[in-house]
Amino acid sequence: MKGLIGGIFAMLLLAACGGRSMSAEEMQRKLDSIQKIEVAERLAAQGINLESADNPLKQFYDSLELLPLPITYTDEFVRYLPNFKPVPQDIAKALELEGNGKQKAIQLTETIGARLMLLAADEGAEEDEEGNEGAERYSLWLYSLDDDYLPVDKICLYAIDDEEDFDLYDEDDIMQYFTITSDYEIHLMDYSREKHKTRTEEVYTLDASRNFLLQKSEELDD
């Protein structure tokens, strides 16, 4: 497959050199088409045929519950994931979603130029002081999808902290917080429980190519 991609790329260069110059936009469209072929080949090896009448990625997306905007972080939301649906493992592989086999998903309200899916990757169960397993813990990822329901871009909304990563000299309790507005503006914040204020904030929007674009990154004064 790599030989095929390389051959097509070489042909594009020869075509550009042998005739009129190919613009950056035209070259990007050609490269996007090549990448799409490569993705389709990789999915076909997993038994997922996008050329069939029944696109399994579309079928899965259409089967999901709808989560209307706006949404915001709550302890209950990230713990219980209301109305999320289990993700089959072949779909999880196609979406390159990490996890331990218990991934979940839900779709967001769709509008022109925006098709978004919220995916939860299982990170292992909580344990009490005696080592007994409790509820499963999940990180949350927001995916943007193209017209074939393949991922274009993704962004982490909520990650599980590893206790070993805690700063023993920092007694401040930091909470990750996120909001997605009705205008598809994504706010990611680190909130200080001790000082009752936001310490850092990043704001993303979805551009015309369905990539997440950083609009603002701010570290707030103490």
Care to describe what's here?
With 222 residues, this protein is α+β, with helices and mostly antiparallel strands. It has five helices and eleven strands. The protein has helices spanning 2-18, 24-44, 56-63, 75-80, 89-94; strands at residues 66-67, 71-72, 85-86, 104-108, 116-127, 133-145, 151-158, 174-180, 186-192, 197-206, 212-219. The strands form two sheets. Strands 1, 3, 4, 5, 6 and 7 form a six-stranded mixed sheet that branches. Strand 9 (186-192) and strand 10 form a beta hairpin. Helix 1 runs antiparallel to helix 2. The longest helix has 21 residues, at 24-44. The protein is globular. The termini are far apart. Mean pLDDT is 78; it is low at 8-19 and 163-169.
List the uncertain runs.
8-19, 163-169
Number of DSSP helices? 5
Give the overall pLDDT as a whole number.
78
Q: Strand tally, please? A: 11
Largest sheet: 6 strands, mixed
Shape: globular
Helical amount = 25-40%
What is the topology?
Elements: H1 2-18, H2 24-44, H3 56-63, E1 66-67, E2 71-72, H4 75-80, E3 85-86, H5 89-94, E4 104-108, E5 116-127, E6 133-145, E7 151-158, E8 174-180, E9 186-192, E10 197-206, E11 212-219
Parallel strand pairs: 1-4
Antiparallel strand pairs: 2-8, 3-4, 4-5, 5-6, 6-7, 8-9, 9-10, 10-11
Helix pairs in contact: 1-2
Key traits:
globular; single chain; five-stranded antiparallel sheet; six-stranded mixed sheet; alpha+beta; 222 residues
